[in-house]
Structure formats: structure tokens, C-alpha cells
């Protein structure tokens, strides 16, 4: 069944291991990017496309959320940005003929790489209940099926609407409105698995769930700590910014269990120096920390600073602490009480090293801490991030040039999606503004996050699922549970650019809606539309695709959502909504079709004339001219401007090349929107993972050749792994001590103590052991192949993020 790894994925025998690289980027990276681009797009289209990436009149790179520098190079892209673009701008097509030729069972046997390689989706497709193949369906029929399914659930909370982070502000804003119009806040998104811990910790402590630095701050910093992040692969353009900071004398400290190439040394392909020499040495210090040891590291830094203050004075920013913070005294006491022995055990670093990092912080006049998934995907991620804030507050390192917190976001518009309302726990202020703008009452009760949605699906409480981008089945933890959960849903709908596992592991019925990507020209309402996105630093700018779309059949995400709104809430398309399709199998849940509570079909008269054939909450649906919004995205922006603070003069400010910087209280004015208006010092009991005897702690991470669940290829060049992904990186001493051999093929078995105290086991078969420089007791393997090992219930406190960076596993010999 689908829970088995696809056959083609069992490629550990072909893996070749070479030396790990000490230098990132440089000329080989550019050549590799061009090779992939040429394979997918041909030479002319490659050049045309790549020159438009991140240019002021071009499109925003769909790769990562790192901001553009103000002065742009002709080629403002990186190797992995080029791969992301090539993947989308590919000339390969997945057409109705493709679906006729391949059954669902056959597609399921392929791995994620093969599925993605087939190319762009070209037509709406439907999988009927019990069918072996998808068949084409018209847009009108597909959207009516979907609206019908939504309208016919007994309770709006039986619907779930997922979002991935590539969706534009315009599409995301309309989508959340659709969902709230339907009557639920079930808006899980990829953020729940990504930077939710950052949002939680920063909102609590500094009153905003975002970072507080700009790209100029990075350049001006005196000290940059890069913790739990692999920018050489996942945010390569960040390396240029680090290089610039370095040239101005900044110190860089890398905190990571792995010696990642990009953190060590960087060859900038855009400067002559990069080509001619060995590049810039980036990290001045490399703290090779144990998985999950970061909270201890930052507590150690805090302790060191407070001790130095006591001894010599002049370390703390007393004026800042007095004026802008609360809770300092309790924090000071807690650090005084902490024991170095425990801090050393948790980090795996000697006291001397911890103090050396602390000393660098003490000497710095402006410190920035950057982080990504290595810090957000642990059980104690939120307390860890609170402890980072504590350290920065001590020296007033928030709200002044060159200083602050810098959670480095993943998806290119994941931050923007949240800004415009993709959130299962919306604030009352946001909902009030939405209500006023659209003349309805949005639901107040919080909805499901990603893990909550999976639980509800697993337990049979969800009848409709829609994914606005992303790949829910492969990205989420506990693959076997998720696959079974999807199967219990009546209708699953995926709005997608490329084929992926969520199209072949589906509900009883499934619909694929192919859509435009960032690079595609979006011609609507007789003109070219642009969209907007927000980068990791709160800067919003326009993005306009230039390539001819892969098929005449594609609708933009905005158009898809606007038409669904029309069908469900009336408006220009109201006549059509009268013909909403009935549920496919009315027999399936007859009791739910009888008493529909307040959800009723009404006549034109009841809906005060404007909404004939209204479907649900007739008097309580958002009102707008949906067809007009589809024809002119500027109208959506004007709604956003009225609902969300900070978007004043939206249209004018995003006009050609201009950037709109969203307000950021802590950064702009040391204003903290917490209960008492102060930034909060917090006291967080020290936590770190304890690894049971004979076991390893596994982190699941990205290779150099993937974008989340999109696998570009099977190499991980910087780590010296070629030709396969089913590998597990283990310290050579652990391999010996545990009684295994390098290159041996093993099963990974995760062990998790369930709620009833019993140990649950999950298995991922056939991984080749690769000796690697990771701390003793720690191991690493790629996601998504290892998601099957991550228990659904193993989530971070407060944020609910799956603990993808700390999974207890044992290796098991296979019968050879
Ligand atoms: N090319 C490419 N770019 C991407 C993506 C992609 O898949 N491919 N994904 C995008 C997305 S959505 C995101 S969220 C980001 C992800 O960007 P990253 O967070 O860089 O991605 P990961 O591969 O998960 O890497 C985690 C890093 O943290 C380290 N780490 C793991 N656990 C710990 C720990 O306990 N402590 C410390 N100090 N370090 C730890 C790992 O060794 C690794 O270097 O990248 C975005 N950009
Ligand atoms: N074990 C483990 N699990 C993890 C992580 C981990 O580190 N370890 N990382 C987590 C993180 S940080 C994240 S962000 C999630 C990622 O989760 P997702 O965002 O759900 O996954 P992606 O792989 O980025 O989604 C790729 C799909 O998006 C579609 N797509 C691409 N561009 C567009 C577009 O413009 N519009 C639309 N509609 N569709 C598009 C394509 O069909 C493609 O197949 O995974 C999480 N899961
Ligand atoms: Mo992410």
C-alpha cells in the first residue's frame, strides 16, 4: 500500500559518498543551476527566465523568503533559486493523456522525485469514487463540485483549508475570506510546521510574531549568530549579506550540529574575488552543538554576560532594561542559579567554548541572532527562542541598527500569507475589521492547525479538504497516519502547479486544480495582473510573471478562489450557484442531510434580492463583487489596505520597484505590543533531549537538491552524498559502538512513548549508514522520506510544531 516507500525510492545501493565540501557556491554551483535549467526549459527560456528573477520589474523568486538587496545584480538568483524557477518554468507537461495512461496505483508506486519530474499540470482533473484513473473535468463543473461539497457539510468545521507559503497576498487574503465566509477558522498552513515556534515566542516576548531586522541591519551588525540554519543550501542569497557584513568587520558564529559548507566559507560567483580566490571565510567560530542544546547555549551566554556585568560592569544596557523591559530581576536570579555542568551536558560543549561565545556577545556593539528549522522543530523550541530574546534584551539589542531577532523564513510568501489572515487563531481586531469590510460576521472560534487537522481527519471529523498549494501528504509528520486520514475525507482538492503525492493519496473523491505559478504571465480582465509578496523582513513588493503559461486552461489562484466565492456567496455568479452539485454519495451520511440547522438553501427573496440561490448562512456571508476582484487584483489590495494596518497607499507604494515596509513596533520605535507595553524577560526551565541508551536522536533535514517535498535530484553536493537519498548520517564512533558498519543498510525505527505509556514504533526501511561529523548520539536523514518516523503527537510545547529535529530512533540490522 501507499505507506510503503515507493519502489523507485529504494536507491541506497547507488549512493556514492565523497568528501564533504568546505566551500559553498562558487562557479560549480552556477554551472549546476544552468544545467538543471537547460534540462527543464531549454537554453533560450532559461536565460530569459533567470534574468527576470528578483528584478524590479520581474517576479519574486519562488525559492526562499530572503529579501533582495537594494542594489541588484543582473543575475539576482542563486543556484537553488534557479532550480526552483526551472522546476516551475519547465517545458514538461502533465496532461489528461498522462492521467489516462497512468493509474493511481501506478503513480503511487513512484517516488516524489519522479512525480515532480513529470512537469506542469495542465487541466482540471477529477478522481471519481472507486475510479482507477483521473479524468478531465471542466472548470465550471469542478468548481461547482467543490462548492457543492462545501455547502453540503453539516457543520462548517468539517472542512479544512490548508495553505502553503507560495500563495500571493491577494490570493491568500481572498482564500481566508472564503474560509471564514464558509464559517470556520480551519486554516492550517505550512507555518504550523515551520516558524510557528518563532511566532509564538516573539509574540509573547516582544509583541510581534516576526523578526525585527532589515537587510541593512544584517550588513551593519557587529556580531551575527546563525543557529539551526543551513543557508548555503536553503537561503544562498543570505551568504552575500553575511559576506558584506563580514567585509565591514562583523564576527559570525555558526551554531549547528553539522559543519555545513555554506556557514564555513563562501565563494561569491558575482564578484571577481569569488571566482579567483578561495572565497570568504564566513564563520569565525563554529559551535558544534548537540541537537536541542541551543536553549542551554543561550542560557550560558546570559549567565556569562551577567557574571561579567557583576565583575567588570559596562555590559548591560541598563537604560533600555529599565525603560523597555519587564522581568529582568527574575531572569538575573535564574541565570545565577543555573549550573555550568548542566549547560555543558546539554550543549555537548565545554564551558570554555560556551564562555568564548558569551565573550563574543559581550564584546559586540550590535548583535543579530538568525535561525531556522534547527531551532523551531524541537519540543522546547518556544522556550529556546524566548531565551534568545532574553540575551538580546540584556544589551538592548532590539530596535537599534545592526541588532535584533532574525527568524529566516522558508517559503517565499509564508510571512505575507500570515499577515493577510492565513491563521487558525485570528485576532479579534483582524476579524472585526474583516466583518466591517465585507458585511458579515466571521467565526470567532479558533480552528485546526496542521496537527489538529490531521487528528480530526483521522477521527472521521472532516468531510472536505482543500490545499492551496503545498503537498500536505508528504510534508506532514507520521505519513502512515496522514495517508489513512486523507482516505477518510469525502472530497480532497489540491490547487497545484506540479504533480505530487497529495494528488495520488486522496480522499474518496479528489480534484486537481492546476494553477499559475510565480513565473507565469497572469492575464485577467484584459490586462496583466501583478501580485504582491512579503519577504522575511516585512518588506512587501510586487511580482509579475513573464512566461507564457504552460496551458491555456490554467486559472490563477485568485480566479479560482474568487469563482468559489461567487458560487458560495452569490454575486455576479449567483445564478450558477443554484445549480450546485449535490454531494456525490448522499447515502454516505444520510443523517447529516436531514437537519441542516442554520445552513439552508434560501430563495432569492430571502437573501434580500442580491444573492439568489444563496447556500449557507444566507444573511451572514461576505459581500463583494467577486467577478470584479478576479478581473482586477488592485481591488483586492484596496480591501487589504482597509482591513490590515500598515498597507496605506498600497498600490502607489508597490508601483514599479517600490517596496512597502510594514510597520514593526520593536524595530521602528522600541514599541512592544505586549500586555504591559514592555519587552518581556522570561524565565524558562532548562530543557534538552535525553537520549535513551543504544538510541540516536535523529534530525530530519533538507538535502541540497530539494525544495521541501519537491526533489530536484538525488545529490547533496556539499555533504558529499551522491545518487540517493535513503541515507542516515551517523557519527563514526556511534556506528561502531552500536555494532553497525559504515555503508550497512539498516532500518530506522522510531520509539515514542504514547499517551498510555506504551512505546509506539514506526519504521522506515532501507537506509544506508554514512559516517559523518555529527555529535555523538545525534543522527541526520532527509525529509520527507523520514516523516513516517515522526509521531503525530510529538509536537513543540505552545506552538504545536512537529518535532522533526528530534526523533528518538534505533538502527536495526536487516537480514542480509
Ligand atoms: N533550496 C531550498 N531552499 C529552501 C527550502 C528547501 O527545501 N530547499 N525550504 C525552505 C523552507 S520552507 C524553509 S523552512 C527553510 C529551511 O531552512 P533550514 O532550517 O536551513 O533547513 P533544514 O534543512 O531543515 O536545516 C536545518 C539546519 O539546522 C541544523 N540543526 C538541526 N537541529 C539543530 C539543533 O538542535 N540546533 C542547531 N543549532 N542546529 C540544528 C541542521 O544541521 C541544519 O543545518 O528553507 C527554505 N529554503
Ligand atoms: N520531517 C520534516 N517535515 C517537515 C519539515 C522538516 O524539516 N522535516 N519542514 C516543514 C516545513 S519548514 C515546511 S514549510 C513544510 C512544507 O510543506 P508544503 O509547503 O506543503 O510543501 P512543498 O513541498 O513546499 O509543496 C510543494 C508543492 O506546492 C505546489 N506549488 C508550488 N508552487 C505553487 C504555487 O505557486 N501555487 C500553488 N497553488 N501550488 C504551488 C506544487 O504542486 C508542489 O508539488 O514541510 C514541513 N515538514
Ligand atoms: Mo518552512
Automatic annotation (TrEMBL):
Transmembrane segments: none annotated. Residues 120-493 form the Molybdopterin oxidoreductase domain. Keywords: 4Fe-4S, Iron, Iron-sulfur, Metal-binding, Molybdenum, Oxidoreductase. It comes from the Bacteria. Gene3D superfamilies: 3.40.50.740, Dimethylsulfoxide Reductase, domain 2. Residues 579-590 have a biased composition (Low complexity). The keyword Iron-sulfur applies. InterPro entries: Asp_de-COase-like_dom_sf, MopB_CT_YdeP, Mopterin_OxRdtase, Mopterin_OxRdtse_a_bac, Prok_molybdopt-oxidoreductase, YdeP_MopB. Its cofactor is [4Fe-4S] cluster; Mo-bis(molybdopterin guanine dinucleotide). Residues 593-604 have a biased composition (Basic and acidic residues). Residues 579-618 are annotated as: Disordered. Belongs to the prokaryotic molybdopterin-containing oxidoreductase family. NCBIfam families: Fdhalpha-like. This is FdhF/YdeP family oxidoreductase. It comes from Microbacterium gallinarum.
